[in-house]
Amino acid sequence: MKHTAQIISTYSCDTSGVGSALYELGGMTVMHDAGGYAGIYSTHDEPRWYEMDSMIFISGLTETQAILGDDSKFINDTIETAQRLHPKFIALGGSPIPMVVGTDFPALAREVEHATGIMTFGFDTNGMNSYISGDNLAFAELAKRVCQAEVPKSTTFSVNLLGVTPLDFSLNGTVQAMEQALTDRGVKIQSNWAMGGTLEDIEQAGAAHVNLVVSAGGLLAAKVLQKRFGIPYVIGIPYGKAFTDKLVSALHQAAETGTSTSLCQPHPDNKTIIIGESVNRLTLVNAFYDATGAGATVLCPVDAAPELLSKGCLPACDEDELKPFLNDATTIIADPMYQPICPETARFISLPHEAFSGRVNHGKMRNLVTEFEDFQAEIQG
């Protein structure tokens, strides 16, 4: 049976992606559900939950409301809460039940915004897509609604970091190391979307010379900003010293030419399989290839940008699609929760992913910005 997980876990869903993308920006996010998704999000998908406050609520959808299609309580509760808490914006997102009954979230958002005067987003999330889909919806809406004004270009060469959430980069210092690696090479961080950044920073995103897309969840926002402000984008992550130097050179070139580019090129080798998010894992492949000349094939179980898919980066959404590739591999690099479906003949190298195994492996998440050379040595050893 397709699209089932008999043994392995599943990835965080689009509802969690929206919550994660907007968590630190001072808004109010309301998940329209009976309560299950809020529990999953708070206990498994959001590592900041116990350390940082955020206005994230659940609507408490009842059977009667779902059957009758009554959205009045959801709307009224949202309006009342917003008038009391004064968030910078409001985000409404769904789950499977609202999807089944055809809830129109953009329409509800317009009602809430009209009643409160607060910018309100309505996302047609349904819990059936991956967190990358939710990230893209949230960041693209920020690019459309928040980045309105033309602003002067920064006098210092600067970038916007797009697609930054703990679902891909955890809370292990990776984001800070990423910013530091760029700053050390003379690149100013104009805005961070959205770990350690602010909504006010995002409002000034048009001042950047180029966008750096560090996950597939930031790609739609990059395309919106390119269309609105003419800012080109580069796809890749500063993993390791050599690849970071190459990435910074690509950023300058993109800014000079106005042409977007990706450093996530395919270098397929089905003997080495890397499983995970497309930008993250393809960056690893390219950093390894530049250092050693060895390639690898990426299997991407979550939403990937079509331009990143190739013979070297393949969509593989369930166990039936994964297993044929795993059976032929001699080395597999993946979250440890994949190991039960990997052949014993293959060498398994653990690379935990917050969006997949959550807090189970939270303490083992790797900071590949500072530890890439050590990780490379482990693979070669």
UniProtKB/TrEMBL annotation:
Source organism: Loigolactobacillus bifermentans DSM 20003
Membrane-spanning intervals of the chain: none
Protein name listed in UniProt: Nitrogenase/oxidoreductase component 1 domain-containing protein
Annotated ranges, domain Nitrogenase/oxidoreductase component: 53-256
InterPro entries: Nase/OxRdtase_comp1, NifE-like
Pfam families: Oxidored_nitro
Gene3D superfamilies in the record: Nitrogenase molybdenum iron protein domain
GO molecular function, one term: oxidoreductase activity
